[in-house]
Automatic annotation (TrEMBL):
Its main location: membrane. Residues 1-33, 141-163 are annotated as: Disordered. Residues 7-19 have a biased composition (Low complexity). InterPro entries: CDC50/LEM3_fam. This is ALA-interacting subunit. It comes from Corchorus olitorius. Keywords: Membrane, Transmembrane, Transmembrane helix. The keyword Transcription does not apply.
């Protein structure tokens, strides 16, 4: 038998294999995408390209940082911390007893304008060490109840401020609404009332979409322990803008919320007299309260972080570009990749 002639046994095995059912393969269907055979760009980062990229970033970032810093420095801001100053001398050692006692808690403060403040001047209250982002606090609200009067009894997520002692629902329910900020500020200048416009201080989308025009407060702050500000039961929630501003919870423990707007210019050296009601309890958690008057720029309020960040990144890229340039000039690469 010729060695090139296949044996009958081999032929039999081959025919048997072809006749057997084909096994399912886990191999993926072939395509240029799955096999990574698509056209690709593989740039070679030569020293010149790296130096140029760092220099370009620095040329763009440094001017943006300078402009941002100048815009922030143009904002005029007055901050008055008052939670300790508004405690009578006989309660200095027991501030919590003072804030929990009944009676008038008015306090007079004076604010001196140091630079021209052009209208509108925004009035904020600032709270420190107040964690509005606590999980149970954030969940203690009913969005459906705030929007739809037919969902008045949807208070399952509002505990412990969900229903009164007789079982009727609280509107608005939950800890967020219950802890509404209740300090008030009255301003006067040259023995004349300085009006504060409290209209339009909340987001329009919140007024139109999240708070109903036919939903009114009901049984609010009627419990044995009062949390904060009272709400007018004859005014719909969509017009209670202090509540709307407060219900948009802050992400950080130090935050500001808009109280109103002063719609007139304040000249340098003018003295503003503030009569405030120191009602809000921040003493039980060592919180701070501040009254803030601030103008704005085209970039927003006073915040140096954005400008400093741009300058830092731009300066670092400029330093790296100079360093790589010196290294490249002192010891140029002799390798050429073709």
């Amino acid at each position: 038998m010729s060695p090139n002639t296949p044996s009958s046994s081999a032929g039999g095995a081959g025919s048997a294999d072809s006749a057997a059912p084909r096994r399912n393969s886990k191999r993926p269907k072939y395509s240029k995408f799955t096999q990574q055979e698509l056209p690709a760009c593989k740039p070679i980062l030569t020293p010149r390209w790296v130096i140029s990229a760092f220099m370009l970033v620095s040329i763009v970032f440094i001017p943006i940082g300078v402009v941002s810093l100048f815009a922030s420095r143009d904002v005029v801001e007055i901050i008055d911390r008052y939670e300790t100053a508004c405690i009578p001398d006989n309660f200095k050692n027991d501030k919590l007893a003072y804030i929990q006692s009944p009676g008038d808690k008015s306090c007079n403060r004076t604010i001196t304008v140091k630079k021209l403040m052009k209208q509108p001047i925004y009035v904020y209250y600032q709270l420190d060490n107040f964690y509005q982002n606590h999980r149970r606090y954030v969940k203690s609200r009913s969005d459906s109840q705030l929007k739809d009067p037919s969902s008045e009894n949807d208070v399952s997520s509002c505990k412990p401020e969900d229903v009164t002692q007789n079982g009727t629902s609280i509107v608005p329910c939950g800890l967020i609404a219950w802890s509404l900020f209740n300090d008030t500020y009255d301003f006067s200048l040259n023995n004349q009332q300085l009006p504060v416009n409290k209209k339009g201080i909340s987001w329009k989308s919140d007024r139109d979409s999240k708070f109903g025009r036919d939903v009114f407060p009901k049984n609010f702050q009627n419990g044995t322990l009062r949390g904060g500000k009272l709400l007018d039961p004859t005014v719909p929630l969509s017009e209670q803008e202090d509540l709307i501003v407060w219900m948009r919870t802050a992400a950080l423990p130090t935050f500001r919320k808009l109280y109103g707007k002063i719609e007139r210019d304040l000249q340098p050296n003018e003295v503003i007299h503030v009569t405030l009601q120191n009602n809000y309890n921040t003493y039980s958690f060592n919180g701070k309260k501040k009254l803030v008057l601030s103008t704005t720029s085209w970039l927003g309020g006073k915040n140096d972080f954005l400008g400093i960040a741009y300058l830092t990144v731009g300066g670092l890229c400029f330093f790296l570009a100079l360093s790589f340039t010196v290294v490249y000039l002192v010891k140029p690469s002799s390798e050429h990749i073709t």
